[in-house]
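REVIEWER CHECKLIST
Item 1: Sequence provided? yes
Item 2: Single chain? yes
Item 3: Sequence as submitted:
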Amino acid sequence: MGVIGLVVLTIFSLWALIPSVFAPHTPDWIAYIGYENARLTGEQIRSLPHPPAFGDPFFAPLGTDSYGRGILTLLIYSSSTAMYIGLAAGLLSSLVGVPLGLISGFYGDTWIDETIQRFVDVMYGLPFLPLLIVLVAIRGQTTTNIIIGIAVTSWLNNCIVIRGETLSLRTRAYVESAKVAGASDLRIVFRHIMPHVLPLSFVYLAQDAAAAILTQAALAYLGLADFASLSWGIMLENIQAEGYIFTAWWWLLPPGLAIMLIATAFYFIGFSMEDVTNPQR
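Item 4: Structure as written out by the authors:
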């Protein structure tokens, strides 16, 4: 599964880094007229969205949307948004959840642990998607705010799992030896315990990245996204708003399959990393 996930993720990464190499056109290309500032005729407008065409009267392997833009081009150029949101939200959730989990586990059964865990309980009691919608609505519908909103609500699993692992590791002999040698709590946590929980944190980073991509797609479908940027969720929202869900399959299926594939790739990588780092499971 890990190899399959890496192959799929590599393809999307190449699309995100060098989209012009893979896309047949640039995002401002329009069917029939290319890049010119000409007007579409009435007959041309009525033919949109156009099914896949391969050279006559234009080249669009996955067809066009209702504005005449190539679906394959939009699909490739939108991959950068998905990769950016997934990796950024996953990293942010790990940067919050892992340190808090380490501290909570190391000081288990103290007021520090209780404070962190009660805050986690409160956050768990809040509905995820409604809370995220409120945060994005308050701060604005930008990609950065969506990433922050996802990270605010996705670090909880990291914290809980890392805390449990730390509770187990803090009783190991090498930790007791470090205490006897006079090492500070900070050194013990980040020098002796953290390296042993990092593989587990990478597993949850991959899963958080997949969840972030799915969440952004859901927000875009609800109209809560940055419509100045290209994304697969916005492509789905456009086809829903234009009313072509049941008639333009070439417009509906590619972004949906892309979201499914990139989320699956992250999950496959996460599960494989867990198998490698925890073979006894």
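Item 5: Key structural point noted by reviewer: The CA atoms of residues 91 and 276 lie 21 Å apart.
Item 6: Recommendation: ____
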